[in-house]
Amino acid sequence: MKEFLLSQAVGAVHGTYHGDGAALLKRVRGVVIDNRKVEPDFLFVPIKGERFDGHDFIPSAYEAGALACITERELQTERPYILVKDSLSAFQSLAEFYKGLFDVKTIGITGSVGKTTTKELISSVLSQKYGVLKSEGNLNNQTGVPLTVFRLEDHHDVAVVEMGTNHFGEIRNLAKIARPDFCFLTNIGEAHIEHLGSKEGILKAKSEMLEYIKPDGRVFVNGDDPYLRTLKEARTDVTAFGKDPQNDIYAEKIKSKGLDGTDFVIHTPDTEFPAHVPSPGGHMVYNALAAAAAGLALGMGPDEIALGLAAYKTIAGRMCIETRNGITVLNDVYNANPGSMRAALDVLAYAEGGRVCVLGDMLELGEKAEQYHRELGAYAARRADRVLCVGTLAKHIYTGAKEAGAEAFCFGTQDELLAKIRGLVREGDAVLVKASRGMRLEKTVEFLLK
User: Does 112 appear as a known binding residue?
Assistant: First the structure.
């Protein structure tokens, strides 16, 4: 981390400083919100969470050598601290200040589905030429983006920042921190529709990122998405990518290689070139096109882009494919919504042998949740030989699957599923496991692979 003065931190968060004035001239070596990660001369920012209040850990932060703490409470201590009204807002303001210390091209990524995969693919491509900082995992929320920014170093040329939301105003906060040069919007789907009301509302929330794009920046959208296409029609700074040849950047000659990925040809306004993405599914072509667009925007050539796409590696819980004991497990448990569920089932359809899907609840879908789950069941019936459903909402997946003629089974809890799953999965089967994060179906993946 690039060091800065404690006095600069006080100014950045507009706080009131308490403590020895000499400490203001000391340098902050790191910024953390986890007291277990405090090192000497770090700045600790306690955040109020659902289960814990970081303020309770201020004493341990000082014991670990914290230079100072940011706090919403007045402290009975002679140690330096900065008093603020809201520690989360202060954390974000400090991250905005820190980001301003660097001259790096910044790519912001948002959308209903595919944010993390697109982030990984863009990073894989850009890493062929540049020093890249990317969001770790899916650290894309109100604390995750600041934590990403605080990892910036002088050797980075590009920052690739994923931004997520389930409420209005959140993307705006994150974009204000990141100040993107390039904004990528992957698609508009049903994820978080419970809080954002409609797909129009989701588009509005995702588009908040554009409020803080650099003056000479550019927007990249999936031009095959009818909601995102409206941005192309309304703005002059938009590049569209997709499978439709009317897009600025498009793919053709798409050929599935089964679970080994997809071959295709990328067309740009200036050239065309072959590419391969080593992860299955037609949806991966869209993510790869976004990555190609990022590479082109930063002056990369076709060969560099193709190498970066081919070098892509999946991350935990994101369509990781592993074969053990004669069973191929498609581990896509990190999260789920109707769009990503359908895409995952399309991947399962590529598998040879028996096809089994283990599907759990999709959360935050609002009043149409039952309908979305029932429709998913009917879709699963066309892609899988056996449909195993687990959870409260998943009973509607079961209903939809049974009505569509599938061999389907329903379990109230994951433990009930695990007690029966050995008799429902056979050697030679491919098993897709997917649900919303709260279902914790990684336990099922571990059970199948052990």
Answer: yes
